[in-house]
Amino acid sequence: MRSYLQLSASSEPGALDAVARRYRLENGNSLGEKDELFGPPSAPVLENPEFQTRWYFKYFLGKMHQNYIGVDGSREPYLLSVVQEGGAGLLRAILFNKMGAHKIYLPPSAWSSGGGQAPTRPTVKQILSQFPAMERVDKVPREITCAELQKDVLLLEEQEGSVNFKIGVMLMKAGQKTDDEMLSNEEGDEKWQRFISLLGDKVRLRGWNRFRGGLDVKGDMTGSHSIYTMHQGHEIMFHVSTMLPFSKDNKQQLERKRHIGNDIVNIVFTEDSVHNTFNPQCVKSHFTHIFAVVSEVEGEGYKLSVYSDDTVPPFGPSLPCPPVFNDPQLFRDFLLVKLMNGEKAAFQTPTFALKRQRTLDSLIRDIYAEHCSDHKVPMLSRRALSDVWSGGAGASGAGAARTEHFLHIGQALKLDAVLRGDAPTSFASTGCGGSRRAPWEGRVWRAAPLPATPICAEQMSEGRLLLSTTSNTYILEESGTTRVVLRWEGCVRTARVTERAGLFRVGARMIAGGGSTTGGAGGAGLYALPVQELCAGAWAMRPLQDCKHARLPRTKTAHYFDLLETGEGGKTTLAVAIGRRVMIMIEESKTENEMGFEYVHIKDIQLSESPILIKLMDGEVEIMVVGYKHHWEVLDTSTAQSIKRAENSEDSGPRRGTLVNALRIGDERDGQIVLCYNHTCHFERLTSKGLESDGEYDFHWTTVPAAVVCAFPYIMAFAEDLLEIRLVANGSLVHAACIPGLKLLCGRKDIFYVACAPEYVPLSREFNPCLSLHDELVKQMSKQSGPYSVDEDENHDRDYYSPSSRTAPSENNSASSRSSSISSEQENMRPPLQRMAPISPPTSPQVLPENSGRCVRIYKIPQSNLSAGAYQRQSVSADQVVTSYFSDRCRRPNSMRQRLAELRLDSKSRGGGDDETL
Fold first, then answer.
1. Distance between CA 457 and CA 502 in Å, rounded?
2. Furthest-apart CA atoms within the chain: distance in Å
3. What is the DSSP string of 198-261?
4. What is the distance between the alpha carbons of residues 161 and 183, in angstroms, rounded to a whole number?
5. N or C: which end of the chain has fewer CB within 10 A?
6. Please, what is the angle between helix 773-781 and helix 398-420, to 10°?
7. Predicted TM-score of the model (pTM)
């Protein structure tokens, strides 16, 4: 099991640590790993990738944008950057303060006044209010038009961590226990040579002009050769102990320790196949936080164990069980991703976080002092946001020159960072992960010619989809068949399917011009139709007026409903919202009933106001989450009593907002629920005393989602033109894509969504480092800005998901392929960048007639691809290292919250805890 336990302090003379540090062990047998909270080990995922998180470099630098400086309610300075994307009115904003960079993505609907009116331009105050803890800003910040400020903002963003990595590699021979002994090994055996050759390519350091990781490239002062590789767009330089200078007179090998001891991540290659001889306390370094212990097991493959300082937040991917990799290339891909994720997570520890906060605070205060003196702020700072988007005040003369200078400086900074290799733009990958499809990558399921806009959908058995549009309701099959099952035009608002019935919430008829009418029949309400008859087409030709007998009683004005199914043969509970009242009904089989079933009314629950969302959840206590216009509450359905309300005094600020969805994670015994509102995903745990807030686990989306679904271990947010995917376990971003026309149809099983974007958007341009800087800048500024202009590395993702990369020959995973990435022809240039398609083309294209109506593209993300259970595990006993160095006092947690608590360090464990020393 995973636990936070204290290792025995080193007994060696001159030990550096007076107090023993605690380490978290991952060996494939811990509970969190067996539950695979980070996805299957066969598909390692890079968390918080720079090409999606470094917004200022990607979306701002080189474009016309605005920068503001101000102070918040605590008199702390902050810097706000705002940019418009294309001509659709989409905004990206970054707020820099001493806590880091906070990012939001704002579609026009975020500030639209509604009523069909055109969205107005937001004010700076409205944009600031979208950020947490910035709802109340007394003084509007000042705009800084100085072009050189872009360099300072770029420096602020670079504090998030390095784009490139340096990793130490040590050899541990039999009988060795201290770092001095490991660093004194002059050479290794055949297994050692095979392992370091697997990590990367042997490169000559003298004259090396790529990332050097602190090694000397002029006079061979740190050795003549080293190991280097590129993986998923990141350059990695390994500090290999046997390649660093060796001194017979210096037992501590300070020259080697100077590099390896200052690496956050170290690899220890050991001859011990059981991994019970390495103790992380033997390495005397305050800087190293993560150790990866590797051994080659004869006839089995590579075995891996990972030790992490207990202040390091949990990170993926989860180790397989047993942690043995038969495929060397799969092991290489897994190991590099694991170590890169580990270094990213280590930057959140107090050791680094406090230093970063001090650095950010100092930089922002310097910017504030330099640019906010009254005599240095020009009158241009009073312009509105719309001025810069329309070309700036004074589009000719001084205004045009100012704009040109601003763009010139930004593009020069961007190009310089690309040529230095310090920018997240080099997407060449040399691992086997480069040819693997991402688990969340959607495929075109159907391209159906439908004459209306999709409204809702529900997945049925045998690969069928029940789809309701503004015209009719259809059953679509993947084979290409489309059948009309209901001709209730403009009426169906929501659809759900149970084992026996299909439920349809019917509203007013839609008419031309966006209005509605109830019609003569007044058929609004909640209808329940037998699934077998529905699929057979028995209701296809029946108008709504002839189906009144299928409408549930007292549901004529229903505006929302939810279902809770308790499994095969279990009861199905139905909750229907009618004004301020929620009706609770149970589905029962009734052979004497014409329909074959009946919904029996149980009770009513009276609410304080009309809800906009209700969610039923089972468990030890059945609860109902109710979302209102500006807050939410949780009710006990058996007693109708409120368990917790969002407007409690302690929750009056961040807990208020429009509830988008409420999700259950974990098993039946688990009371963990996730509430999604505003930009926030908030965790609550149901106990016998009520709800316990897990606010420490909260994370924030970059935009307010329109729909949120959980496909464990991932949680996915669908917003206007934006798909964002994060890990449930730690909230880390793993994928984001701009998809025009994005709308979620259903996500209870497989995930279906529609999009109107073409699968592949061509590049507007590519960086050509062979051109001179002046020619490149002229080429950039000669192009008009548009939805896909200026930056080849922005808007979408890395090229190795494209079909051309997926069909690359298998030798790309070999050492010869890695060598080709650093050939003489490419030493001075970065590989060209391509956009990733957010969606994939159909496997068998359909030719649709031009007069067949609107072609609706439906995309599918199979649940089997996302589910952690897709990885087949073997059952093995715990590693001997647990009994050798640890006292396992933990019991198996019985809830998802406890499992997450094992991975997310609470405040006490971060502080060191009071565990006994062995």
1. 12
2. 99
3. HH-EEEE-TT--S--TT--SSS-BTBSEEEEEEETTEEEEEEEGGGS---SS-TT-HHHHHHHT
4. 28
5. C
6. 130
7. 0.80
